[in-house]
Structures are given as C-alpha cells and as structure tokens.
Amino acid sequence: MSSIKDRADLIKQAAAQMGKETYKGTAAKAQQPRTEYQKSSPKIATLEEAIRKCGLKDGMTISFHHHFRGGDKVVNMVVDKLAEMGFKNLSLAASSLQDVHAPLIEHIKNGVITEISTSGLRGELADEISRGLMEKPVVFRSHGGRGSAIRNGDLYIDVAFIGASSCDPLGNACGFSRSENAKSICGSLGYAIPDAHHADKVVVLTDDLVEYPNTPSSISEHLVDYVVVCDSVGDSSKISSGAIRDTKNPRDILLAKQAAKVVINSGYFNNGFSIQTGSGGASLAVVKYIRESMIEKGIKASFALGGITAHMVKLHEEGLIDRLVDVQSFDRAAAESIMKDPNHREVSAISYASADEPSSATHFLDIVILSALEVDVNFNVNVLVGSDGIIRGAIGGHPDTAADSGISIVVCPLLRGRIPCVVDEVTTLITPGSTVDVVVTEYGIAVNPGRPEIMERLKAAGLNIVTMEYLRDRALSVIGQPDPLPFGDKVVGIVMNRDGSVMDVIKNIVEK
Fold first, then answer.
1. Closest Cα partner for 437 from 417, 411, 473?
2. Nearest Cα to 90, choosing from 98, 100, 79?
3. 457 burial class (0-12, 13-18, 19+ CB within 10 angstroms)?
4. Is 131 exposed, middle or buried (0-12, 13-18, 19+ CB in 10 A)?
5. pTM, two decimal places
6. How many angstroms separate the CA atoms of 455 and 464, rounded?
7. What is the pLDDT of residue 180?
8. What is the DSSP string of 138-180?
9. CA 393 remoteness from chain centre
C-alpha cells in the first residue's frame, strides 16, 4: 500500500498534467436559507435591468409570442419601456399581433419599431399598416414557416421576451401555475419555444414567481438569462376572444354539419385517424358533429393537433381522442387540461408544423378543417386580407396543415353580407390551391379535381357536389361584380411561403 506522501505526490503529478491546482481543503458550507438563496438569484431583474444586461442596441430584433391573444400585456409593456429608454430602429418579430397591440402605432411613428415580422395583424394596427404606416413592408409567415426561419437563421432574434404564467427564480417557465398566487394561465407556450432555443438572449416575464423547481416546465432555466416579475402578463379571459368563437350562428352550424359529413365520408374517418380544426366558428363546431358518428361507429382518434379547444378536451376525456398535441391552447379549458393531463402534450411551433422538420406533427395529420376569407376557382385560399383590402387576420398554420394533411377541408360561406367569399382570384394568396382538397359552402361542396377518389366517395354518400365556378357564379348572381379595390403602389406586406420563398405581396389600400 502506498504511503500518504506517495499519494500526495501522485495527486500533484496528476494536477500538473492537467494544468490544475491541487485541492486545498474544504470550504465552509453555505448556511444561507433556501428561500433567501432563491430570492438572490442573479437572474431576477427589473425589466429595465434585464434589457440593459441583454446588451440590446438600436437596430436589433426583439420577439414575442401571442398565447394570451387579445389579453396579452407583454408586447405593449416591453415596447413602452424600450421607447422610454430611447431605443430606435428595432425589428419586432411576433408570432402574431392582436387588436390589443394598437399602441404600437405610436412607436412605429416615433421610429422605435421600424420592421415587423408576424403571422397576422388585427384591429387598428392592421388598418394603419394596410394604409401605408410603415416604410418597410411587414413580413408574414405561417407558424411552421416562422419556426423554420428562426432555426435556420432567416429570422435572427437578439432578445426574446416571453410572458409566462409561472416561473421560478432560475427561469423554469410554463403557461400554467399550481400556486395560490396564480394570476394568469395560457396553457401551451409552443410558439415561444423556438424563440427560447434560438434567441441570443431570453427574458421571461411572469406575474407568478414560484419556488424552485417549477416543473414540468415548458422553457428550461438553461435557456433563460433573466426573469422579470411584473403585475400581469396577460388576461386569460381574452384568450378565446376574436377569431376563436363557439358559434351559435345558424349558417355556421349548417356549414359545420356539412363539413362533418365530408369528414365522415372522406375515406380518412377510420379508427386511429388524426384531426385538426382551425379557429373559425364553423370549423371549430365540426368536432361536435363528428362525435356522434365516432360513438356510433366505435371510432377513436389517435390525436388532435394544433390549437386545442374545450371541444377537443371533452372528446379526449370521453376516450374518443387518445392524445392532444397542443401548440396553442385556445381557451381556459384547454389551458387547464394541459396542466393536469399527461396525455395532453405541449409541442413547439417547429415540431408542430415546420416543413423541414421530418417529425413535425402535421406530417402525420389525416384531416384538417380550416376557415377562409376567400377561396378562388383554383382552390387558392386567402385568410389574411379582407375584401376591403385591409389586413384583418393571420396566416397561422393554414398553409402548413393544408399541405401536409391527408385531406384539407376549407369551410366558408358563399357570401359575408354583400361580399363574395368565392371569387375568380383571391386578393392575397396564402394557401395554394394544389394543397386544398374540399371547399364546403351552404350552396354546395366543391372537390379539387386532383382528388377524384374523394369526389367519388362524397358523391356516393349523396352530398351536393358542385364546381368552384358554379359557386362563384352563384355569388355573383346575388351581389353582382364588386368594384376593384383601390390599391396603391406601395408594398405594405410580403407573404412568405412555408419553404422560405416569397409567395405574394400586399399593397396599400388608398382612401376613396
């Protein structure tokens, strides 16, 4: 056995070989109480401190998510602070922007924000941008396209600001909270996850600082640089406002029932099928009308995807849907479900719908039911620009799911008021007609000629099959040919395809 001296010599030799010092002895054990240690986390900062520590400079890109939708408070809070601190020429990369973000108008006028990248715009902000507010056009991407752009560097984010329903002092964050102090809940943080992974710096804002460890977490402490505690990050009651609605409109109900018949007779309604519905009232309501057939035929879905709603949660709890794959919780019921149900899984925007991600969930999607502002005779769809030329919606996952699904079903009325929804050519191309299989209206169902097998199945089921030209002519017979829109020459928006190519542009609308 070697002596203590021999062992000490060997330790010195090993340390020298590794270029290290030898161990000098035990340091005194820290006696700081755990609660005090948590409060002293170096990541805790005020919003202004976090901004300064991140090294943000004029001309950089900041990002946000929209999981609180119309109840979001983070975008306005952060940009107000940036304006107060004197920042200029910033690029704002949001997963989507809502009516509540109208205060950005003044920050654009004052030069704080000079570029925007988003999936959608609504309200007064959208109206002003449509009329030429910004010098540089807004870049619109689908949710899957945005995820890809962040990952491959086309959309580089310097600082991501992420609103979280709860977070611990080290940065473990999620969209729900189990604490007694919970103020907000948004469910999935799927659209913020790519930002957290790829941004240069990440700041989490929360109104519920909880004890470590906050598990399960959507965003890991290893991705987070600073944690800011604020009064409120969002109003949960407004998540389901706007485009997401549980319809009671008789026409929407009729459309939903017709779309359900298409689903049931499509050839894709088999045991183990997968499904996603869009945010429109009629497309959301389809779930209620396929439930009865699922029970009658003994059919269960393997998973439901996308923006998860209370309807999907109910079918899951009844055992009719095995799993919920949630990139965005569309209501409080869905947000609460993801907190307690291990079969209700959160998924990032990349894993949800990016075209260049082999394992993205949309690649395994059988049926998608979508809404539309316009559909043209070539099955092209517009979900972004209204018939008045004003931006009033979002691309969302529309082109992603239409392209990847086994069957894509677009549900829209023939007319909205005195405005035709079936036209010769869509105002703005968002989803190419080659990826749209069926269009359901209250005056008939059109099937893409490229899908003759679906047409035969629906005809055999006795459904009223018509052509897109018939639907266009029917609309024109009621309202006549609309006047051309008074577009100007300024490009206010650029629409990106999900593969990163430029698909269309949006021009400014000119006052008559």
1. 411
2. 79
3. middle
4. middle
5. 0.94
6. 11
7. 83
8. EEE--HHHHHHHHHHTSS--SEEEEEESEE-TT--EES---ST
9. 13
